[in-house]
Amino acid sequence: MALLNRNEILETIDMVEKEHFDVRTITMGISLLSCIREDAKTTADLCYEKICKKAENIVKVANTLESEYGIPIINKRVSITPASLLTNSFNGKEIVLAKALDRAAKTIGVDFLGGYSVLCQKGITKSEISFINSIPEALAVTDRVCSSVNVGSSKTGINMDAVKLMGKIIKDTAFKTAEKDGLGAAKLVVFCNAVEDNPFMAGAFHGIGEGETVINVGVSGPGVVHHALKAHKDSSLNEIAEVIKKTAFKITRAGQLIAKRASEMLNAEFGIVDLSLAPTPVMGDSVAHILEEIGVDVVGGHGTTAILAMLNDAVKKGGVMASGNVGGLSGAFIPVSEDIGMIEAANKGAISLAKLEAMTAVCSVGIDMVAIPGKTPESTISGIIADECAIGMINNKTTAVRIIPVPNKDVGDNVEFGGLLGMAPIMPVNPNGCERLINRGGRIPAPIHSNKN
Amino acid sequence: MKAIVTVIGKDKPGIIAKVSTNLAEKGVNIEDISQTIVQGNFTMLMLCEINENKLSLIEVKNSLVELGKEIGVSIHVQHEDIFNAMHKI
After folding, report:
1. Of A221, A374, A419, A420, whose CB is crowded by the most CB atoms within 10 A?
2. CATH number of the domain where residue B23 is located
3. Chain-chain contact of B85 with A12 (C-beta, under 8 angstroms)
4. pTM above 0.90, yes or no
5. Exposure on the CB side of residue B21, measured as CA atoms within 13 A
6. Would strands B2-10 and A157-159 be described as parallel, antiparallel, or unpaired?
7. How far is A320 from chain B (nearest CA, A)?
8. ipTM for the assembly
9. Biggest CA-to-CA distance, chain A
10. Confidence category of residue A426, pLDDT binned at 50, 70, 90
11. A6 part of contact set with chain B, CB < 8 Å
12. What's the average model confidence in pLDDT over A168-175?
């Protein structure tokens, strides 16, 4: 103990006991390219077997590490090769694969399996259209499968045909799970610049540039950052940025240690550590409350975007020094229904979709877990997606839309998804349409700064 | 393997005796110990060597957590590496 300071030991214990510090997820990425066969059943069976074999011990290993290090590991997850690459030869029967993936997730005991995904940022094949059309049913008949569709990138521009299609798919997904307030749509993300090593759901998939099996770890800790800032009531913003950086460093180091051990024990490559301040709906685990601690009265007020930009950047800087392989999304998440501070702000009418859109220009993701009226036109949802993609494309960052048009509910109603997905009031969307824009189709060309060769 | 044992709770007679007896019974060697009382709150930190051929850290931990419940203090047992990782560059 000579080398360890007692305050440091007690600080770590307090982080866990009082400030909700945790490893949010250990996610094993598994390549399923070796499972591709002509017919749906054989492919699905092979996928099931491979996932169960590779990730057999993921829950056991996570529990052991949680116990040894005394840091809670909340979720154990699996991400797979974008599934649309596996279904080319059995269009129309994609659901067979979705069900097998769900069974595999249940057998090994992971809470979510991500990668029922398509990458169509430039063009889209007939097979991919068939796959995308299977998403609403896939998310309705499975419990743990998550889906994502990448419709744009800084390198390729935005595939507006895919954007149009996804407006419809999001709505169909919500309505197919209408009895659960459109929960299916909470498991579906539309991306621009999707990352291939993201451990967080619902957007995780195992990129085709990745190896056979890889461990990616997501660490969180909005409560720890919030707590650290409480001791700095009168500090200037550059001092605040330093505090956030140091805190992020410590959190990421814990993630790095656990990621390294987990990959050794699971016989997989160590991929990345993703330090993302990911809130949960419990008190003391809110990103919004960090922004309010720093100085906006209610999140959504003027100044919110500026503070969020600093927070996101300081988190990345602390994280980068702490781990040799920082990746994924790394930054701050601003889901509405999953963050108690955001829920409070939405209930007060302090935060709008317009402000959220501005915030996504400087945080690590996008419009996330926002409930909107079920009657919102498909084209308007496509318009929201297009706006987010434009922000991502021009700023060289990941943006995403995970939005839930809640069937038979309207502004003034509330929706409760339960668990980590939380609850939210239905937020109004801009009533002015964009159907003519969306119906044009085609592609928004890649921006000038994509031409770097 | 080296582990840090942390005992936190309301001070009362016999805490050190009970914790160290439990460790001794398991063949766990205490290499360093530090203890203070701040406003009636007892805080003890111990650096221990666990012989993994005899018992795993998790077994030692489970037993001490139970003991903590019996005597009304909170006991943590954690691998030393987590503190080194988080607080040393």
Report:
1. A221
2. 3.30.70.260
3. no
4. yes
5. 7
6. unpaired
7. 13
8. 0.90
9. 70
10. very high
11. yes
12. 98
